[in-house]
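Worked example 2:
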Amino acid sequence: MSDVTPVGGVRQFPRLDPEPPAGFRTSGPEPTGARVVLVRHGEAYCNVDGVVGGHRGCRGLTERGRAQARALGRYLERSGLAGEMSALYTSELPRAVETASLLSLEARGLSPTRSHEWCEIEAGEADGLTWPEVVDRFGVVDWESDPTSPFSPGGESWLQFYDRVAGALGVLGERHRGERVLLVTHGGVIEHAVKFALGIDGTRRLGLRTKHCSWTEVEVDRLRRNLLSYNERVRADAAD
């Protein structure tokens, strides 16, 4: 029997599903959980000065970093992404707080919620020192062989850092199920978020090169976690 049904004398063919069958498909399902867009802060003084940028060492953004943040803010508005965000979160560190402010999302009703959970790894006594000073006083940490070693006395280990980020992402996923939220944070947090989304062991080091004012998106859900994009950037002179 034919599955073509005549309608008004015109044969109607069944509509074909454009998606390949599941076994052939290379793309995942449409996200239904919380979509967290993680933005790395713009270029900061601690980045160019070679200083450990914790609460003592971070002095905010360079002029280049401010230009990067403004360029990203313009892109978010122009692309319509700004209007899709239901909340804005940021690390407590000055370079992240300043980046969030320069995105200019207040008109969208988004005021940043600051939290230590989204800060870069706690550096302990090394905070504010130059990298040569860190090596001279504390040596070089080897997280490849021992991810439980602290950054320096009083600081976090690589594994403690991952546990902090993973726990915070789980809470965010429950709070914003089915929503899209913006999070201004740091390269280390983004690396751990990528591992969390892909189910990679928290002790692993991926060696990612996450660019300033790039964005990475992960889906966080009780039943499914996924990496939706990584290291997307505004292609402009002010944000290269």
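The longest strand covers residues 225-232. The beta strands are 5-7, 10-12, 34-40, 85-91, 113-115, 180-185, 215-220, 225-232.
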